[in-house]
Amino acid sequence: MDKSTIVCRCEEINIDEIETAIKNGAETFDDIKRLTRCGMGPCQSKTCFYPVNEIIAEYTGMPLNEVSLPRLRMPLKMVRMSTLAQDSEGSNVVSVFGESVEDGES
Q: What domains sit in the chain, N to C, each tagged with a CATH number?
């Protein structure tokens, strides 16, 4: 394959960038993700994970089944700012105008 072939369509990362990351010490998909942003786009590595692991295996000479899997993280969810801004006593959030902000207001 041509070195300019795009592997991660979301972040437009090509084979050459993946190989450069490996030359710079990347050994896992997570390492490559940190160095190149590969896998950080809207698809969250659903399209680039396997091609990148194949490149890692090919470039390092490691069998594909020995290339480590990425670290899994819990899904994120929306949290109201008032939830984050409460102090340990649970007092209400005060707006920049000095008035109390009730739950449900934004």
A: 6-66 (1.10.10.1100)
What stretches of 2-62 adopt beta strand conformation (E)?
6-8, 13-14
**Residue 91, both tokens:** 């007092």
Rg of the chain over CA atoms, in angstroms? 21
- Calpha distance 44→88 (Å, rounded): 35
Amino acid symbol at 33: K
Residues 21-71: pLDDT tens digits?
A: 999 999 999 999 999 999 999 998 999 999 999 999 999 898 998 888 877
Beta bridge partners of 6: 14
| pTM of this structure | 0.63
CB 14 within 8 A of CB 6: yes
